[in-house]
Amino acid sequence: MAATPLAGGVARGGEVCGALLRAMMFVGMLYGRRKLEKTSESEDYSKCMDLAIMIYDEFNKTYGSVRCKDIHPRLFR
Fold this sequence. Notes:
The protein is an all-alpha fold. It contains 3 helices and no strands. The longest helix has 21 residues, at 43-63. The two termini are 28 Å apart.
């Protein structure tokens, strides 16, 4: 699977959680821009970004961080 290297916060580096990154990639696949244009002129960009921000904020609220090195100790004690 193409997202395998995202595990453990990108190559197990502990940074941004791979699960969150995969969610962002999925949002982009479904709602991302269909052509390159100025972001201020892109309806697709605005819709996609609104959803991505909502997911990011909810993830951060739920897990208390977006970084694997902060999340794993809480989940896997």
